[in-house]
Specification:
Blueprint (H helix, E strand, L loop, with lengths): L2 H4 L8 E4 L10 H11 L4 E6 L4 H14 L4 E5 L5 H7 L4 H14 L4 E8 L7 H11 L2 E6 L18 H17 L3 H19 L14 E2 L4 E3 L9 E2 L6 H5 L2 H11 L8 H10 L1 H19 L1 H8 L4
Parallel strand pairs: 1-2, 2-3, 3-4, 4-5
Antiparallel strand pairs: 6-7, 7-8
Helix pairs in contact: 2-3, 3-5, 7-8, 8-12
């Protein structure tokens, strides 16, 4: 795609994630973000990075911050210490991620977080990465390794993780988020509970509208309903405008294919709009879960915590 191709994306976008591959290896990453920012002035833009090239990431983030100070950065971390190196097979991978995280904080990135993906090998590091994010004062996002018809040639993901460990880790995360007096943390608890359902039962928590509420744009200009749907909706390089592409017969056919796609999926980029569309259902769950958390904690424990001497 050229920079002019990126200018075709719709101005109505509200959440944009720039991912890869490794985005900061792209020689035009700064210019791409600049064009996206100019085209979608109301959008929240986040770049996902593996964080291994600390100097490169910091240098290019510093450039972007000059014209877009609210840029978001999410750094992948699949385990604490040697576990991350085992998963990613990069020597000193954990130390590189921590260096990039702290470097981003030092240059003023305010929307900063760690992004963990659970697989059969690193199940017990979910809460460890969460604890690290809390200790570093950054955001935390998580995912479960999911099959994708688009990526990896449709290879199926082996979910042969210990169900007891999966349940324990997600239950602990949900409980910690619910105990915080922060509505965003409660929504994250709902999302995490949905990931637990996906991992253990293969259930999708809420219906989502891939190819209607969101889409995936690949580096060659092809638009897909999402990262898990391999059917194209059209090409940004060919279409005169995004509106033409979005309303094309090819896009209509892609949406029909999505409707027939029975494979469940649940990730931030697909769940965000589903949660918004089913807000009352989500709020009802949060209320029930929050009450359950308070009952388990007990009023005395809350009083003691509230009056604890620093």
């Amino acid at each position: 795609m050229t920079l002019d191709d990126y200018r075709k994306i719709p101005r109505t976008l509200r959440d944009i994630n720039v991912s890869g591959g490794e985005p900061f290896l792209h020689p035009q990453i700064v210019d791409i973000v600049r064009v996206i920012r100019e085209t979608c002035p109301r959008a929240r833009i986040t770049i996902s990075t593996n964080g291994f090239l600390t100097d490169v990431v910091i240098a290019r983030v510093r450039e972007i911050l000059r014209f877009f100070p609210t840029l978001g950065i999410r750094i992948s971390l699949d385990g604490v210490g040697e576990m991350h190196e085992r998963i990613r097979r990069i020597p000193h991978g954990f130390e590189k991620v921590v260096a990039t995280l702290r470097g981003c904080k030092a240059i003023g990135v305010r929307d900063l977080g760690l992004a963990y993906t659970m697989s059969g090998e690193n199940v017990e590091h979910l809460t460890k990465v969460y604890d690290l994010s809390m200790a570093e004062g950054v955001q935390f996002t998580c995912a479960v390794a999911q099959s994708s018809d688009f990526y990896f040639g449709g290879k199926r993901v082996d979910r042969a993780a210990d169900p007891t460990a999966v349940a324990r880790e997600f239950d602990a995360l949900v409980d910690r988020e619910l105990r915080r007096w922060n509505p965003k943390a409660w929504v994250r608890a709902y999302f995490a509970d949905g990931l637990k359902r996906l991992a253990l039962a293969g259930e999708q928590r809420l219906p989502s509208r891939a190819g209607e509420d969101f889409f995936f744009l690949d580096p060659f200009g092809d638009v897909y309903p999402s990262v898990v749907h391999a059917v194209t909706m059209g090409s940004m390089k060919v279409a005169e405008s995004f509106s033409d592409l979005w309303r094309s017969t090819t896009a209509v056919a892609a949406r029909a294919a999505v409707a027939a796609h029975a494979h469940p999926y649940w990730m931030v980029c697909t769940a965000r709009t589903a949660i918004r569309r089913h807000a009352l259902r989500v709020v009802a769950w949060i209320i029930r879960a929050k009450i359950g958390t308070l009952r388990r904690t007990g009023p005395i424990a809350h009083v003691e915590h509230a009056h604890r001497t620093p």
